[in-house]
Amino acid sequence: MDYKKLDNEDLKYIIDLVKDADRVLYGENINEEYSHDELSDTTSYPDVVVKVTSTEEVSEIMKYAYENNIPVTPRGSGTGLVGASVAIEHGIMIDTSLMNHFLELDEENLTLTVEPGVLLMEISAYVEERDLFYPPDPGEKSATIGGNISTNAGGMRAVKYGVTRDYVRGLEVVLPDGRIVEFGGKVVKNSTGYAMKDLMVGSEGTLGIITKAILKLIPLPKKAISLLIPFPTLEQAIGTVPLIVKSKSIPTAIEFMQREVIIDAEQYLGKKFPDNSSDAYLLLKFDGNSTEEIERAYDSVAKICQEQGAIDILISDTTEREESIWKARGAFLEAIKGSTTYMDEVDVVVPRSSVNEMVEYIHNLYKEVNIRIKSFGHAGDGNLHAYVLKDDLSEEEWEEKMTLAMDKIYNKARELEGQVSGEHGIGYAKKSYLMKSLDPAHVELMLGIKKAFDPKNILNPHKVCQL
Asked: Which regions form coiled coils (predicted)?
């Protein structure tokens, strides 16, 4: 599609609109970070970056872009992993990070209304100080809530509490033509027409730009205890997960990890993990309103683990121990990145009953393709993260082996009735795998939805299902 190339007249209009030249970056003033996201090797600079501060600014920019056929890319913290916030067609990048205000805490309806630039860690701190709880817990705590909603981020607590979509009650959205609309609201039930709010969640900035979100809160659990459970082998550890899922005690989180990733995290953080002597571990978290309640919940799960060959049950019942374990778990991605020259990631999700088969397949795949692969993940909800490492491979070898490894992992996930992405999204980087996995009728419907929202295709083009 032919887009208008941004010129000085367009730039002047934008500067006059926001009335603050410091919030408009162009030319050499555009930081290199705006050309890519956290991991993807997808790189492209926008022509101009606008650091917006209000819904009205977003609306006026979108009206102008729509009338003049200028592509627009929305962006939060840029912590995505699939190139969704990269300006493939250049044009205007709308940076929402300055729209970072808490607008309302409604304790009667248990909702929190925020702008899209508020960080996940700020939301957690804000509500927990008031004995409230926002359960979604994606690993990247410096991500914006707008980005979390745009990718339907999951995180470690999804096994018990669900994902971001389950905690979004309402959204204010600027459409590609600049109109401002509201989807959902504070109501708990809603059968009023099509679920437009849910369509926006996970749309990766291709249908509209989120400018306000009403989030559901719940009462804060009073206590949390974690169990770190070493196993002699990965097979024993991961084979225990379906048994835990089938039991009546539902942990807040069920994570699996291997010794080599723990050692990477120790080196990255400069701190020892409570135990690094075993090949594989399960990390379980339980929360509730009393120690007795939690102990009853984890007692039966501990027995299952012992029956399956667990070496020990390490109980983390102090704040210090909790922080040391979960800080290491939160550092896994950065630690793996630091252990190699470059990497690409897979974010597959399979039915929980197939987790053990998928993990063992990934673990043994390096022998077949002769490339290092490290993995960890949310074993309790079937969402597995595998990282293919470049190390000292030449570009040609890397491309060949990485592509082969990726194809095999996605094919195995499809064989197990899984999906391409559990929480990172499709963006630009994973489109080819999505196309292989979906029925053509499914893709046709998605393209039709995109056209209904954005007939000129100016908002975040080439992402998700678009060529």
From this structure: none
Distances (CA, A) of 97 to 100, 125, 241, 295, 427: 6, 18, 39, 41, 20
Per-residue pLDDT tens over the stretch 190-213:
999 999 999 999 999 999 999 999
Give the per-residue pLDDT at 383: 95
- Residue intervals of the chain classified under CATH 3.30.70.2190 are 223-333
Report the alpha-carbon distance of residue 397 to residue 300 in Å, rounded.
48
Q: Which two tokens stand for residue 352?
A: 């929980």
**Is residue 74 a contact partner of residue 121, using CB atoms and an 8 Å limit?**
no
DSSP state of 28: G
- Give residue for tokens 């559990």: 422
Q: What is the pLDDT of residue 428?
A: 95
Beta-carbon contacts of residue 410 (< 8 Å; ≥ 6 apart): 346, 348, 420, 433, 436, 437
Over range 2-12, report the average pLDDT.
95
Distance, in Å, from the CA atom of 93 to the CA atom of 333, rounded to the nearest integer, reads 27
443 pLDDT tier (thresholds 50, 70, 90) = very high
- Distance between the two ends of the chain, CA-based, in angstroms? 11
Please list the residue range(s) of the chain that carry CATH number 3.30.70.2740: 340-425
Q: Is the pLDDT of residue 467 over 90?
A: no
Instruction: Name the amino acid, one letter, at 400.
Output: E
At residue 274 the predicted structure's pLDDT band, cuts being 50, 70 and 90, is: confident
Could you tell me where in the chain the CATH 3.30.43.10 domains are found? 8-98
Where would I find the beta strands (DSSP E) of 353-450? 373-378, 383-389
Decide if domain 8-98 falls under CATH 3.20.20.70: no
Domain 223-333: state its class.
Answer: alpha beta
**Prediction pTM value:** 0.94
Are 168 and 202 in contact by the 8 Å Cβ rule? The answer is no
The string of pLDDT tens digits covering residues 36-72 is 999 767 899 999 999 999 999 999 999 999 999 999 9
- Whole-angstrom Cα distance, residue 115 to residue 122? 12
DSSP structure class, residue 119: B
Question: 58: which residues sit within 8 A by CB, 6+ positions away?
Answer: 52, 94, 96, 174, 209, 211
Could you count the other beta carbons within 10 Å of the beta carbon of residue 38? 21
DSSP, collapsed to helix, strand or coil, labels residue 354 as helix
